[in-house]
Amino acid sequence: MAKTLDPAVAEVTTGRSGGLLVENVSAGYGRHIVLREVSLTVDGEIVSLLGHNGAGKSTLLRAVSGALKMTGGDVRYRSRSVRDLDTARVAQSGVALVPQGRGVFPTLSIEENLRLGAGVARHTGSERQLVTMDFVLDLFPALAGRLKERAGTLSGGQQQMVAIGTALMTSPTLLLLDEPSTGLAPVLVQTMLDQIRTVHRELGIDVLIVEQNIHEALRVSDRAYVLRLGAIVREGPAATLLDDADIWDLF
Ligand SMILES: Nc1ncnc2c1ncn2[C@@H]1O[C@H](COP(=O)(O)OP(=O)(O)OP(=O)(O)O)[C@@H](O)[C@H]1O
């Protein structure tokens, strides 16, 4: 039986009506069904989405961002359905996706990449707090002295910073991060996730993060969901899941 998350109920349970509400979403590729009635919320918090390879984590982020049409259910953001919006419209509503594999424009400079994000922000016409280039460069000082360099010449970790920086420059209210630590040296994973925490704390941006580094992801998250074979099999406060021996058995 599908779990129904009525927006009014979500407002009571989360204390706000402005967050993300994924309601019984089913989606896949042609006849390959990947997500089966997945429901989750993100509201004023950092939420991790964990699960094995192939569990459907990226598919869920694609469905939320408008890149993949869902076959069932609904996605509401700030009380409005984004189900039928394309990626550009979803972005304008405040949702920024950083896809796995970074997604920078390699032949453009760091500065040009970041300004592409600012271009999206200009079209929103909303009251959102604008994220400045200075904020991004304070967050990722490694980029500051290299603004004119082509993004394609940077290390994997630095390209990841450009991708996240570009998403931030759209001045989002919700950031969807698909494995932001991919390709980073272990010593940098912690730093990257701490920077995500800084973004949430200082700008009030909500974050839904898919991560393979389960321990590190839970450490910076408020809550988490575990996806298995396209269905949510566990959810709860991150601190509780960190202490839950059973969750480690799921992996
Ligand atoms: N473009 C696509 N066309 C067809 N099948 C796809 C496509 N993208 C993903 N899949 C399949 O959908 C299923 C879920 O993939 P998805 O990428 O969402 O998993 P994931 O949980 O993000 O795992 P990973 O950590 O490996 O990225 C997998 O079986 C995958 O092979």
From TrEMBL:
One of its GO terms (biological process) is L-amino acid transport. It comes from the Bacteria. This is Branched-chain amino acid transport system ATP-binding protein. Residues 20-250 form the ABC transporter domain. SMART domains: AAA. One of its GO terms (molecular function) is ATP hydrolysis activity. Belongs to the ABC transporter superfamily. Keywords: Amino-acid transport, ATP-binding, Nucleotide-binding, Transport. CDD domains: ABC_TM1139_LivF_branched. The keyword Ion transport does not apply. InterPro entries: AAA+_ATPase, ABC_transporter-like_ATP-bd, ABC_transporter-like_CS, BCAA_Transport_ATP-bd_LivF, P-loop_NTPase. Transmembrane segments: none annotated.
